[in-house]
Design a protein that fits this description.
It is built from nine helices and 25 strands. With 413 residues, it is α+β, with helices and mostly antiparallel strands.
Length: 413
């Protein structure tokens, strides 16, 4: 992987005002730090209300009027949507505006939103059906929360995996900035984009990884790549087009992710192999709900006789699954398979790399057992695979090249 880095010119100045000055070492100009891009993260979307406060106090700002109110440290401010705008109430008269911004009185202090602390500022506005709160924050500060949330607590020796995640998350953010303009923010804060919950998941190792890779992104033909990632690939990554429409990229091809002994790098993952089991009636109840949610016929919930794999992707994951019943057949494809076969608790099935076993009494299904491997869609970087590679001593640039072949590591700022 080629590494393109911006050079820093050292300017040496000698005053030449006397022989004593000529004997002193020249001064180096301090490096100029380019500000990182500002991002807008939707941290609450269409909620009924939100509670805000500040460690060092906060101020309520209207873009046209300036500071409307100042709230002392620890005092709560409640925000709700009202009409086409928002209303805040606290130790002051209610303030209603089309849009309000909450800033810390001390620029380096945090703002608490529903008990969680966030860096930067918070913007309050009316969403489609309620209050929307947007965290306005620099990309590098945002990444401190993302890397900690996505990778969890890591141990010494796994730093390179954190650096790889920092580069991938930065690349993903820059690639997708402004794509959510109709929602007034760049990225959501859940698994539909990248997990982010403010400062709660920040960790010294994650922060160090972000700082060590500041401004670095993966590029292809000079542009940030589609930097997809998931938890556990199960030993083989997935083709981009098998999951994401239009993701036919040279660097998003299905690849084996195994070491020299043929062992999956992500075999250390607690989700490398898994098992789900339903009693027949419970499975029917679940299907009735999940099929309806997907807009599919719920008839298979009551007349199911067989579950068949119709075809698989190049990586071996199930591409199309058929639910066959006495009254017809229902085909389920792609990631909808994970939603239709959601286990108890409502989470998606861990992956589409699985086998199904049915136990019957006559024609009636009494038990459904699924044995699976991996967690997530499998496209791009395998997070647990990156951890395994880091433990083996691979540097983060080599890890990235393994998952995104043909790309380049480039420092954008």
């Amino acid at each position: 992987m080629k590494r393109a880095r911006a050079g820093l010119a050292l300017v040496l100045a000698l005053a030449g005002l006397g022989s004593c000055l000529l004997n002193e070492p020249p001064d180096e100009l301090a490096p100029v730090v380019t500000p990182d891009p500002e991002f807008r993260i939707g941290v609450r979307v269409n909620v009924s209300k939100a509670s805000l406060s500040g460690v060092a106090g906060i101020r309520v700002v209207d873009d046209d009027e300036g500071v409307v109110e100042e709230i002392p440290p620890g005092e709560l401010l409640e925000a709700t949507s009202r009409g086409s705008g928002v209303t805040v109430r606290g130790g002051m008269s209610p303030v209603t505006r089309r849009l309000l911004r909450i800033e810390p009185n001390d620029s380096g202090a945090a703002i608490r939103l529903d008990g969680r602390e966030y860096r930067g500022a918070l913007e309050l506005r009316r969403g489609e059906s309620g209050l929307t709160v947007i965290n306005v924050i620099g990309l590098e500060q945002y990444l401190q929360g993302v890397v900690g949330a996505e990778m969890g607590k890591r141990a010494p020796g796994e730093e390179e995996a954190l650096k790889a995640q920092a580069v991938v998350s930065r690349t993903y953010a820059l690639r997708n900035q402004h794509r959510g303009r109709n929602l007034a923010f760049d990225l959501a804060s859940d698994v539909s984009a990248q997990v982010y919950a403010g400062m709660v998941n920040e960790d010294p190792m994650a922060t160090a990884a972000v700082q060590a890779t500041r401004g670095e992104v993966l590029t292809f033909n000079g542009e940030p790549i589609d930097a997809f990632f998931s938890s556990t690939c199960g030993g083989k990554t997935e083709d981009g087009v098998a999951v994401f429409a239009g993701a036919d990229r040279p660097y998003l091809q299905s690849l084996p992710d195994i070491d020299a002994n043929g062992v999956a790098w992500c075999a250390i993952s607690p989700r490398y192999q898994w098992h789900e089991q339903w009693e027949g009636k419970a499975f029917a109840t679940s299907l009735r709900h999940t099929l309806a949610t997907e807009g599919l016929s719920t008839a298979r919930a009551t007349d199911l006789r067989e579950i068949r794999v119709i075809d698989r992707t190049r990586s071996g994951r199930i591409a199309t699954l058929e639910l066959a019943g006495s009254g017809g057949r229902t085909a389920v494809s792609g990631q909808a398979i994970r939603r239709v076969l959601s286990p108890p608790g409502g989470a998606w099935l861990r992956s589409t790399d699985f086998t199904v076993r049915l136990s019957r009494h006559g024609s009636r299904i009494e038990e459904v057992v699924i044995e699976g491997r991996g967690y997530g869609h499998g496209v791009g970087m395998c997070q647990w695979g990156a951890v395994g590679r880091a433990r083996a001593g691979q540097p983060y640039d080599a890890i990235l090249l393994s998952y995104f072949p043909g790309t380049e590591l480039h420092r954008m700022y």
